[in-house]
């Protein structure tokens, strides 16, 4: 169904109060398993495992993770009238995720993920699938945000322009800065507007310094930097703690989506009223599970499995 604002609603089951509105980050990935990363130059490679295209980028994975944990979730983004957009719409229908899709004439976001034998990935993003004038209609954005307990904002365009409208609603915000180096100015509006900030420690020379700067300059009282097998750094109300990594329940095959799973599970704990340390353990457990899911498949840790794992003592 398409409204007068051009919003296509592919799911009408979330017309009441929503737990989390996910903004942006919808798209499609083409996954290629390669023999090693970095990939040495060669005229050609034979990919015996196949080359697969499936729906699922950062916003999709967060929305899927939240829904698997029992939270009422709605996703707002721009999608093209193209095969990639059809895959994204089908993913949301399959998992019961509410989706409001605005038309994107430039097409649905897409990327190519090269995945190494150890699960590491190299992502190639097609930046031609956006336009400088892209915007979310303020009335649509405000209506969905005020009907939500929380808004998770991806750093994809045009989410930066949506931040003032979201801030005016007073709804708590979270975001993931991904592999921010602590210097790129593009990430700063997101870092300083959110109440909860996630990022990867991969590009940070001094994670604690970056976490404290985010807290000092912005609204966040909780900042988390994930560090893969080394766990995570949690800054909550000025106190920095280290969060141990959790043992994956199966062999690690792909790290794609681990950060999104961490964020979804952390927010699940936060909305349930759990302390930051418990939220971070939820995130670590869901992130470890995500590393066992092949890149060609879209899957997320369910609530029962998460709570069962969290109840077990650490080794």
Automatic annotation (TrEMBL):
CDD domains cross-referenced by the UniProt entry: adenosine_kinase (cd01168)
Keyword Cell inner membrane: no
Keyword Membrane: no
GO molecular function, one term: kinase activity
Pfam annotation, one family: PfkB
Top-level taxon of origin: Bacteria
Domain Carbohydrate kinase PfkB: 197-297
Keywords tagged on the record: Kinase, Transferase
Stored InterPro entries: Carboh/pur_kinase_PfkB_CS, PfkB_dom, Ribokinase-like
SUPFAM superfamilies membership: Ribokinase-like
Protein name: Adenosine kinase
Species annotation: Streptomyces monashensis
């Amino acid at each position: 169904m398409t409204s007068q604002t051009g919003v296509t609603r592919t799911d009408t089951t979330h017309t009441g109060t929503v737990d989390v509105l996910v903004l942006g980050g919808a798209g499609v990935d083409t996954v290629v398993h390669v023999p090693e990363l970095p990939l040495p130059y060669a005229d050609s490679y034979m990919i015996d495992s196949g080359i697969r295209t499936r729906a699922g980028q950062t916003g999709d994975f967060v929305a899927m993770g939240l829904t698997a944990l029992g939270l009422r979730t709605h996703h707002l983004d721009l999608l093209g009238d193209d095969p990639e957009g059809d895959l994204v719409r089908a993913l949301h229908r399959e998992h019961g995720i509410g989706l409001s899709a605005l038309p994107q004439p430039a097409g649905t976001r897409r990327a190519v993920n090269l995945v190494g034998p150890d699960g590491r990935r190299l992502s190639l993003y097609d930046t031609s699938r956006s336009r400088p004038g892209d915007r979310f209609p303020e009335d649509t954005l405000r209506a969905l945000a005020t009907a939500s307990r929380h808004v998770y904002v991806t750093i994809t365009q045009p989410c930066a322009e949506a931040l003032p409208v979201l801030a005016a609603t007073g709804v708590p915000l979270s975001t993931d800065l991904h592999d921010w180096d602590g210097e790129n100015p593009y990430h700063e509006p997101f870092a300083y507007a959110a109440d909860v900030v996630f990022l990867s420690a991969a590009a940070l020379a001094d994670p604690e310094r970056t976490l404290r700067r985010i807290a000092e300059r912005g609204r966040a009282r909780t900042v988390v930097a994930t560090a893969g097998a080394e766990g995570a750094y949690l800054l909550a109300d000025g106190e920095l703690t280290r969060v141990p990594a959790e043992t994956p329940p199966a062999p690690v095959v792909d790290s794609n989506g681990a950060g999104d799973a961490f964020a979804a599970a952390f927010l699940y704990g936060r909305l349930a009223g759990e302390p930051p340390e418990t939220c971070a353990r939820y995130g670590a457990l869901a992130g470890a599970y995500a590393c066992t899911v092949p890149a060609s498949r879209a899957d997320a840790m369910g609530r029962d499995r998460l709570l069962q794992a969290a109840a077990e003592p650490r080794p």
